[in-house]
Every structure is written in C-alpha cells, then in structure tokens.
Amino acid sequence: MKMPFIDLKSQFKSIESDIRKRIDAVLEHGQYIMGPEVHELNEKLAEFAGVKHAISCSSGTDALLLGLMAKNIGPGDAVFTTPFTFVATAEVVALTGATPVFVDIDPVTFNIDVEELRKVIADVENGTHPLCKDSELKARAIIPVDLFGIPAEYDAINAIAEEHGLFVLEDGAQSFGATYHGKRTGSLSHVGATSFFPAKPLGGYGDGGAVFTDDDETAKLMQSVMIHGMGEDRYQNVRLGINGRLDSLQAAVLLPKLEIFPDELVKRQQVADAYSERLSQIPGVTPPSLPEHCTSAWAQYSVLSEKRDAIQSALREADIPTATYYPIPLHLQKMFADLNYKQGDMPVSERCAAQIFSLPMHPYLKEEQIAEVCQVIAKAAK
Length: 382
Ligand SMILES: *Cc1c(COP(=O)(O)O)cnc(C)c1O
Fold this sequence. Notes:
382 residues; alpha/beta; Aspartate Aminotransferase, domain 2; Aspartate Aminotransferase, domain 1; 2 domains; 3-stranded antiparallel β-sheet; 11 helices; 12 strands; globular; binds pyridoxal-5'-phosphate
C-alpha cells in the first residue's frame, strides 16, 4: 500500500481556503517582513505554550542560536547536549565558538541521561574531562533535546542547572505541543526553541522556528540578536546578531495550522496508540514508551529492533516509507572530529543508532494503513 511518511496534502485540503485567504492578505498588504501576521502568530504561540514571550524566527537552528547568542555563549564555554539528535543541536554550539560536550542518552526515552549529565558536568568542572586536556572549559549551558516529541526530564535538569549556575535551552524542535507535568514545551526551562520545518508537528511551507521565554530581558536580547543586533532603532547595532526573522508569508501559513493543531495532537496520539497496541505483541520489536507525566507531539514514531535492517527492507518492498533517525550519533560525525570522540564513548546512543527506525506518522494516517505497516513488521521480525 503506497502511503506518505508525512501527509501534508491531506492537511492542506482540510484548511485550503483559510491558508489561501491568509496568503492573499499578505500579498495585498505587502509587508513581507515583520508584517501583522508575524505579531499575531507570536501572540498565539505565547498563549499556546503558556509563556510571556514567543518570538518566531527563521528556523529551529536559528532559534537555538538566538538562545545561545543572547546568553553570550562562546569560546571556552562547555555546552552539554546529547549526540543522538539532529546535527543542528550541536552545530549551533560550535558556531558560537563554544564546545559541545556530549552526554549519553536514556535507553527508553532517548533523551539526555540525567545521571550521566551530573557526571560529565563534574568532569568538566574538575578539569578531568578529555576535552579539558588542551584548553580550559567553563560549564555554561545544557541543551536537552525532546527527541521524537517526548520532553526530556526537566525537573531534574533544571535542578542540576540551578546547582551549577547553567543556562538551560530546550531543543523542542520535535516536541512543540507536547507536555511535561501538564506544562507545554517552550515553558519548561529558561528558553525553549522549536522548529516549523514542514515535517515537524507544526510545520510551515518553508523554514521557520520560534523561541519562548518568561524572562523579559532574555526576550529583548533574542529579538535584538534576531535583527542584526539592533538597538533602540533599526540602524543602531549594539551587539553581534543575525538575519533571523520569520517571513510574513510563513506566519500566514502557520496561523490556520495552529488552529487545528490541538486536534491534530489528539489524532497523533491515537495513531501512536494504534501502532503501540499492535507492535507490543511482536517479539523483538520495542515500541516507544511515554513517561506517565509526559505527552508527546509524536514528531516521529520510532521503534527499536535488532532486526532493523530486515524490517526496513520489508517495509520498502511493501511500498511503506521508513526512515532512520539517526544513523550516526554526532560524536562520530566528521563535523565534530576535532573533539576526538571515538566509537564506544556513547554506548547507548551507538546501540540505538544501530537499532532505531521510524514509521509513517501524521494525524491523517488510517487504521488500515497502520494495520498493514504492523503486519509487514511482524512478518519481517520473525
Ligand atoms: C529539525 C530540528 C532542528 C533544526 O530545525 P530547523 O528548522 O530545520 O533548522 C534542531 N533540532 C532538532 C532536534 C530537530 O529535529
């Protein structure tokens, strides 16, 4: 059965006239940069996430960068994050001149392991971490990643950060709409960052992202960094910044999508439940497990199996799309070769990278499609 991995067409059909109306309005007023749609979106995003300030920006990558730059993270600073994530998480750290320091993941949630985090922070503070050999490193920030849509363990992470005076920047690129103890992502730490890349739970028709915070001063700094470090007016540049704005056209697309997003989150959960019910009966296949105090945005529905390669071949044979997030953990990527990590340094991430695969996941997935995907997996896992 042919089916899309992510079904943007069905979603478009359901809100086509709203999207076209919104885009037409932008074409009429012509304020393509920082138009009224951007301000309206920021207000609605802040309300949705339950924070004082939401600032939409050009991508999830730039959202992370805004958070780091606003806090003056740079050379000599250690930023703790996981290697089992999209490259952007650690790439932005290196772009500021700071050093990404990897911490292995929890094997169940795939999010940062808080006990490991404690150890690695202590190693950096004591100067015993291998990365401290050639240069002095100061522990500055933690970037927890809410992988596949499930929030990281923020109560513990925030407590560790408080104890060590660290800045916490949530990489919520995959978790917009998820909750942790009833609170939405974006509101769970000092600053939250998310992405509106088309394939994310809330996606535009191009690149986009947002940062969230309750802190007035941090919000002001991120807004300034986003517009070339602008001061009181546009031609006063008081700090190093970037060109990081969201287009009015993307805001126009995101506004109607945000309206149906709560309903889509419910449907995503139903799809995940339908998958899990079937897959939990197949030996040798481990469906995702959601901590009781969390809901997920289900950016990906990812499964572990030692027979991953055989299962993926069978799925492709049956015309069912499947993807591998992520085949190479970041500590083994060439981009970070100068950090001198080696195979075996992050055993949980490495094992997950060898066993993980993702299945079609979107709110418009039908029961019979889910049934077929699981049938193919059951046969291939034998
Ligand atoms: C998608 C993603 C990003 C980057 O978002 P872009 O909008 O593509 O720049 C960062 N971190 C994670 C975990 C992501 O999945």
